[in-house]
Amino acid sequence: MIARTLLLAALLLPAAAAQACINYIGTDHQGHAFSPDWIVGEELSEHLTEQVRRRWQMERAREVIAEARATPSFEHLNNLGVLLIYQGQYPIAIRQFLAIERSSPGRYQTAANLGTALELAGHDQVALRWIRIGMRRNNDAHLGSEWLHARILESKIALAQDPNYLAKHSIAGVNFGDALVPPMPAMPAGNDGKPVTQAVLQSSMSYQLFERTQFVKPTDPIVANVLRDWATLHLVGGSIENANMLYELAVTYGAPHDKLMKRRQAHIRAILAKPRKDGEDGSCAICGSHF
Questions:
Q1: Which domain holds residue 234?
Q2: In the prediction, which pLDDT does 227 show?
Q3: Beta strands 26-27 and 33-34: pairing type?
Q4: 112 vs 23, higher pLDDT
Q5: How far apart are CA 119 and CA 156, in angstroms?
Q6: Is the dihedral of CA 115, 118, 120, 125 positive or negative?
Q7: In a domain? residue 285
Q8: Cα(288)–Cα(108) distance, integer angstroms
Q9: What is the pLDDT of residue 4?
Q10: CATH number, domain at 262?
Q11: Cα–Cα distance measured from residue 130 to residue 149, given in angstroms and rounded to the nearest whole number
């Protein structure tokens, strides 16, 4: 099984590419500058949409295959399974992680990766089971963001039964209401069943959407729903440059460009059109934990 997996992976090696990221100064919804220590605006859009992780995985493909062939340790076989996912070889990746689970049982990485491969292969119910197993094995997995992956899978399953499900539900479990600049909502439950912090909500959306947009292209109602909430989270407590860009990306993924979104974007543009207030004394309620 391992030899055949190595051969199939070796046949799917693409060319390499480079990547980079830059830090910026953000603007809060009152027009004050602050330093988020992370990328802002168009740079964030490129980070989400330019296949950064996929390119990096493909650059390492020959090395990953050689390591797994030379030393079939848990780490190397896991890395091979991840490569297979990025190559789109989902059935082979599923078999790879099931074999790893038999030989090295109980690892949270195996559960999380198997759940991802199963979802991408269209098996949402079984994928949800493995994502939950991974959360039980390690509450801190994936920067504590797997609660959102579980909610995404739950929403996909519900959407298959009710085509209007997303019109009435926030996948992330937040309710911002209809105010132009709403208050910070109550926080959803995280990996440990307790409400996440505002910073963890931000980092969870960032982590899960970065991973998901490596595989899911527009249009996709699940990504659109989370992107819209992430945009509003930035409007309320982060960078309004990011809020505006994320609203646009949500529309690209299929979110309705309704009156409320247009009003919020107009409000953002009006703030950004004014001279930024002196100093870096702006507030960032969602800073402190990011990806």
A1: 2-16+24-273
A2: 98
A3: antiparallel
A4: 112
A5: 10
A6: negative
A7: no
A8: 25
A9: 45
A10: 1.25.40
A11: 11
Q: Tally the domains of the chain.
A: 1
Share of the chain above pLDDT 70, in %: 89
In the block, residue with structure tokens 């963001």: 145
Question: What is the band of 9 on the pLDDT scale with cuts at 50, 70, 90?
Answer: very low
CB 81 within 8 A of CB 96: yes
pLDDT at 280: 60
Distance CA 204, CA 277 (A): 30
Assess if residue 233 is contained within a domain.
yes
Q: Does residue 98 sit within a domain?
A: yes
Q: What is the pLDDT of residues 44-56, one digit of tens each?
A: 888 787 777 778 8
Is residue 283, in this structure, part of any structural domain at all?
A: no
> CB atoms < 10 A from the CB of 210, how many?
16
